[in-house]
Amino acid sequence: MRCTLAALAALAAAVLAASSAAAAKPRVASINLCADQLVLLLADPEQIATLSWLAADPEESLLAAEARRHALNYGTAEELLRHAPDVVIAGTYTNDFTRRLLARLGFAVVALEPETDVAGIAANLAIVARAIGQEARGERLIAAMHERRAHLEATRPAERPAAVVVRPGGFTVGADSLAHELLELAGVRNVAAEQGLDRWGSLSAETLVRSRPELIVFTGYRADQPSLANAALLHPALARLARSRPTVTVPTAYWACGLPQSLDSVEMVRQPAP
Amino acid sequence: MRSARLYVTLATLALAAAAASLAIGRTSAGPTFGFGGAELADVILLEIRLPRALLGLLVGGTLGLCGAALQGLLRNPLAEPGLLGASSGGALGAVVVFYFGLAGADSLALPIGAVTGSLAALATLYGLAARRGDLLTIILAGIAVNALAAALTSLALNFAPSPYAALEILFWMLGSLADRTLAHVWLVLPLMLAGWLLVAASARGLDALTLGGETAASLGFDPRRTQWLVVGGTALAVGAAVAVTGVVGFVGLVVPHLLRPWAGFRPSALLGPSFLGGAALTLAADCAIRLLPPGPELKLGVVTALLGAPFFLHLIMQPRRGGASAA
């Protein structure tokens, strides 16, 4: 008897929950660092069911403080099931098995392409905004970002120094990447792209030194101690070059994911330390 | 009598591990037990944990069985399923699917790619070694096929379309049972069954081979037939396993060693126990993953190697007794 009553109560609760959810905006879960940050920008806080654990790491995420207010997940189906979201946002390279299982379990799964330019950021903002019923906020963010981009373009310095990006592990950024477009906006020439590198990869120390860069852009993985982290990354030949050139440090999180805030890096690159 | 007790013990262990695999879950806060309340229980049990437990059983059993058969066939305690290129061929096939972005197009593209790669590795092996069917040629050809597949996999990683794609491929190759579905079980089951039957058909030939190839032939067993039963069966079953779980190392190597003192010297007597032992070990490792403190899930291949390697060292450093190292 008591079991029946409990079951009835549970049923009633489920029906109530379902009817109030229909009125409210969809609850959203994200299992991808870049999607996490777009969700944080677009969603009402009470819409957010859970974000990936990387979102709360200030090394990786520009919105770590905001992310820490929400439940975090490690991207497995069972965890997400318990958060009962309406929409799950992932990346196209997020574990394929998990995405398919979630779709099979009846969740609306949205997969975002990695942003390779500012247009890509706008596209992903629009996709997430539509998925979580925040179209108006999405349009405002996109318009503000385009306006800022236009302003940066109008104020671009006439002189275009040659710049080289040094990332952890000797990687650099080539053409067809978000960082490349931001460098162009900042008004510097990306040496690696001129050397024919597209997307991602590494250039040898010799190539970098011979290209005679006038500016060195580090992407520090430790934003608070960039010189220490980057000193270890440098080939001695590059280190010598770096001592005689202006340098600038862009924390990795600005370029790892495409966000409206990624445009901040344009101003950083325009104001190098001598 | 002795073997009956061994079978019962191992079957009990495997079933207990499977039951634990169904009962242990993992949330952001760490391990959980039970099924998360009435309305979630069905989905968690049937859609998430059951496929995981079934695949652990199938993949672990396959690795144990094929490891035991290969060690018997090659009369070499170092033999394991990865040796013939079935694993690395499967990994290459899957990476090619990733590379051309086909994984998103069809949920079965990845497993189909892996089985194709595994069969291609076997076909290459057959082409290289068919004319001279001796064991040494098969092993050397297997090593060459392995090296080629590994090199091509690295090449694909080198030219991966994005760092995220490269990372996803690397993670997949570490092996995992997480978030698989029953569709994956149905995909691999027929291939594995066929592989198991081929390997099982080699049992008496394997026993005869312990007396040497010529003696076996004089007893009416064709050594070549035994070879190809084991090699073909392994490629099918292990290729299917790699297809859905990535590369899970060490199970095929350790389990036959572990069980040989109890199962005795005859290779055929080791096949069944190794199947059950492999299943139990793989399921136990997969449970261990979920019992760890909160954090991103470890990969199964990492855990089987972490558990297996020290144990294996301990085993081979012990004074030789019984048949612990001789096949």
Question: How are the secondary structure elements laid out?
Answer:
The complex is a heterodimer of chains A (274) and B (327).
Chain A: H1 2-23, E1 28-30, H2 33-42, E2 48-52, H3 64-67, E3 72-73, H4 77-83, E4 87-91, H5 96-104, E5 108-112, H6 118-131, H7 135-154, E6 162-166, E7 171-173, H8 178-186, E8 189-190, H9 191-194, E9 200-202, H10 205-210, E10 215-218, H11 226-233, H12 236-243, E11 247-249, H13 253-256, H14 264-270
Parallel strand pairs in A: 1-2, 1-4, 2-3, 4-5, 6-8, 6-10, 10-11
Antiparallel strand pairs in A: 7-9
Chain B: H1 2-23, E1 24-27, E2 30-33, H2 38-74, H3 86-99, H4 109-129, H5 135-158, H6 163-173, H7 182-201, H8 203-209, H9 213-218, H10 223-245, H11 251-263, H12 267-291, H13 300-317
Antiparallel strand pairs in B: 1-2
Helix pairs in contact in B: 1-2, 1-12, 2-7, 2-10, 2-11, 2-12, 3-4, 3-5, 3-10, 4-5, 4-10, 7-10, 8-12, 11-12, 11-13, 12-13
Protein traits:
heterodimer, A: 274 residues, Rossmann fold, four-stranded parallel beta sheet, 14 helices, 15% strand, elongated, B: 327 residues, mainly alpha, 74% helix, 2% strand, disordered C terminus
